[in-house]
């Protein structure tokens, strides 16, 4: 009987350390340098941040998302999930632990598909936390359907020349390189005709037109770039994996990325629930505490149950990834986790905000940021609708249409069959009357 919901005491100790470290040392960075985590370190920030990274390294918790064969610690997804739910409390924590999106997914595909030279040039410094990367796939006219992408790379001697536009390329402004998905052969199906390239951000022709911000961010503060690739010339060695492999590579990348977001979302949702409970116990109105009101108890119970369901789902999916070592095989459950994730964060953050009254909607509390974050989760890495379709298609694969007009579970036919099966006893029953 192998089902087991316990954490090894040894690993629990490590998690306890990480929990205290994140609360005491890392969460304050979110307040001192908010939204600065993807800005390359300058003198002041480096002095504060490097010693924290060093502590994480000494504990063996640096870059735990990759296996040892790929240059990481080889924790596996289940152990990573337990760690990531702690890191999810803080914007800076993934950076301090060397496992921030989108760099984790980008590192994963370079590790899987990169040449030795590409690993030396990009993966090593990425794993060392010395540079940032950007995944440049979505285009202004098409996101959810990658078969519509038109950015082209054309072969010219030993080089490729890239031309086109990409939208919402997160962190491009501070990234050292971009992973760009382009059409290399328009004459075959997009599934065979697209490829990925590793492009240093300072290559001539990479033109960051503007950095788009999310709601609430001031103009110019955003980190999602509209990029024009104007005849960007890269050598043949810039191709990642083989020509025409972009879809296979994208699947590897997004599978890991989605489940890691979900792990961190557990931590953020739990933070909102903790805040809701504290407020419910602290605030008095109309003769009793908020925690005595049935409406508020309902918020707390619903939130707790939603979080528990989601957590078990994420941990189970992480366990499946470790077991099968194949994102494709676990695709249905990764997509299901992606579908559920925005709703869980949204609902819990919204209730926590409501329980805090007016204070809840101010910029002195983090709830509206969480609610916006939930909306983002319903789009980034693909919209919820598309993931629902993936889940449904995978579920339907395990089912068959009924053999005739009537459903297999149609009671009259089943009853008739059951009566035939137990006919001898039914006859006795009649005989005993
Ligand atoms: C914060 C953030 C960060 C991002 N970072 C990156 C990044 O780093 N790199 C990158 O390349 N992209 C990034 N993206 C882009 C993201 O991947 C796309 O937004 C997403 O794939 C949806 O594409 P779209 O925005 O063009 O929406 P569209 O494709 O235009 O879809 C719009 C809406 O139509 C509906 N819809 C779409 N398809 C279907 C369907 N098949 N069935 C039913 N309804 C459907 C959905 O409601 C969907 O939200 C980011 C997005 C956000 C919000």
UniProtKB/TrEMBL annotation:
Domain Acyl-CoA oxidase/dehydrogenase middle as annotated: residue spans: 134-211
A single cellular component GO annotation: cytoplasm
Keywords: FAD, Flavoprotein, Oxidoreductase
Annotated Acyl-CoA dehydrogenase/oxidase N-terminal domain residues: 9-130
Single GO biological process annotation from the record: fatty acid beta-oxidation using acyl-CoA dehydrogenase
Catalysed reactions listed for this entry: a 2,3-saturated acyl-CoA + A = a 2,3-dehydroacyl-CoA + AH2
GO MF: acyl-CoA dehydrogenase activity; flavin adenine dinucleotide binding
All copies of domain Acyl-CoA dehydrogenase/oxidase C-terminal, residue ranges: 247-396
Assembly with partners or alone: Homodimer.
Lineage: Bacteria, Bacillati, Actinomycetota, Actinomycetes, Mycobacteriales
Cofactor section: FAD
Family listed: Belongs to the acyl-CoA dehydrogenase family.
PANTHER family: ACYL-COA DEHYDROGENASE FAMILY MEMBER 11, MEDIUM-CHAIN SPECIFIC ACYL-COA DEHYDROGENASE, MITOCHONDRIAL-RELATED
Protein name: Acyl-CoA dehydrogenase
InterPro entries, per database record: Acyl-CoA_dehydrogenase, Acyl-CoA_Oxase/DH_mid-dom, Acyl-CoA_Oxase/DH_mid-dom_sf, AcylCo_DH-like_C, AcylCo_DH/oxidase_C, AcylCoA_DH/ox_N, AcylCoA_DH/ox_N_sf, AcylCoA_DH/oxidase_NM_dom_sf
